[in-house]
């Protein structure tokens, strides 16, 4: 379509049709799915940006009014349940399992994890197993600020395995996550196949970031520490990633109730006054 032919009615028509289209994976439409609101909204935002460029260069006379809908009230609150996590690990090969463990344990974005290198240069380590941290440079993260992420015991096992494998197979890329010495560039196909086997719906790889941040928060780690490890600079953004479920409430309050019972028993069965 000519740029000059794109008017508000064409944009509205596109929005309506696109919103009804199914998600396409591996060249096939996925039954029971629809393109998300956010996807359509961002496509239209990009179209508006391009039309403004065309107007600036006098290619078109005016830009049609494209009103974008707010995404603030459409907060994503999906997290990976314990059963789903175990199911995904049980239905993926070890190289993919390692990436999923990395996402689950670090709150790193997929690209941040897959692009992770062992070293930063100048003798600095990105994966510092001795100190127990992953150190991400500003240019490697979305927020453009340095970030330090703790290495959990589960992730340390993964890094030890990768180190051992790469000692046998040349790893010229310096990437941490490899398969047969070659960098892993994408796990989406394996992830989607595992989801189908476990019958998991409406789960994105980015939901692992929500899951990790929620786990950290519910475990009692101070907000400031969670924000530093996740890279969030505002409390509003942090709160949008904390998705408390009934299972979290059950676990947290059961700990409190159990603690109260133990304290009562220690005081001869008498209730402890506040």
Count of discrete alpha- or pi-helical segments spanning 4 or more residues: 11
Strand order of the largest sheet: 5-6-7
Separation of termini?
72 Å
Number of domains: 3
Largest sheet: 3 strands, antiparallel
The sequence of SSEs as H and E is HEEHHHHEEEEEHEEHHHHH
Based on Cα principal axes, name the global outline. globular
CATH topology of the largest domain: hpI Integrase, Chain A
Residue share in β-strands:
5-15%
The total of beta strands comes to: 9
CATH superfamily caption of the largest domain? Intergrase catalytic core
Note the main attributes of this structure.
single chain; mainly alpha; 3-stranded antiparallel beta sheet; two-stranded antiparallel ribbon
Please provide a written account of the structure.
There is one protein chain. This protein folds into three domains: 3-56; 82-243, Intergrase catalytic core (hpI Integrase, Chain A); 246-274. With 274 residues, the protein is mainly alpha-helical. The model has no long low-confidence stretch (mean pLDDT 88). Helices cover 49% and strands 8% of the residues. It is built from eleven helices and nine strands.
């Amino acid at each position: 379509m000519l740029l000059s032919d794109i008017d508000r009615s064409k944009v509205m028509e596109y929005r309506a049709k696109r919103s009804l289209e199914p998600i396409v994976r591996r060249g096939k439409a996925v039954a029971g799915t629809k393109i998300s609101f956010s996807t359509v909204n961002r496509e239209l935002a990009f179209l508006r940006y391009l039309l403004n460029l065309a107007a600036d260069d006098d290619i078109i006379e005016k830009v049609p009014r494209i009103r974008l809908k707010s995404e603030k009230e459409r907060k994503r609150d999906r997290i990976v349940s314990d059963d789903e996590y175990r199911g995904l690990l049980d239905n993926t090969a070890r190289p993919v399992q390692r990436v999923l463990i990395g996402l689950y344990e670090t709150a790193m974005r997929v690209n941040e994890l897959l692009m992770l290198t062992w070293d930063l240069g100048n003798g600095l380590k990105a994966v510092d197993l001795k100190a127990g941290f992953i150190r991400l440079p500003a240019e490697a993260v979305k927020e453009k600020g340095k970030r330090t992420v703790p290495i959990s015991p589960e992730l340390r096992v993964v890094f030890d395995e990768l180190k051992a494998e790469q000692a046998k197979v040349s790893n010229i890329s310096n990437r941490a996550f490899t398969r047969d010495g070659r960098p892993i560039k994408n796990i989406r196909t394996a992830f989607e196949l595992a989801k189908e086997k476990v019958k998991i719906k409406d789960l994105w790889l980015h939901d692992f970031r929500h899951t990790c941040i929620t786990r950290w928060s519910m475990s009692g780690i101070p907000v400031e520490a969670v924000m530093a490890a996740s890279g969030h600079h505002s409390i509003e953004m942090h709160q949008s990633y904390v998705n408390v479920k009934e299972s979290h409430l059950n676990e947290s309050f059961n700990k409190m109730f159990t603690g109260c019972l133990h304290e009562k028993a220690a005081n001869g069965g008498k209730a402890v006054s506040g």
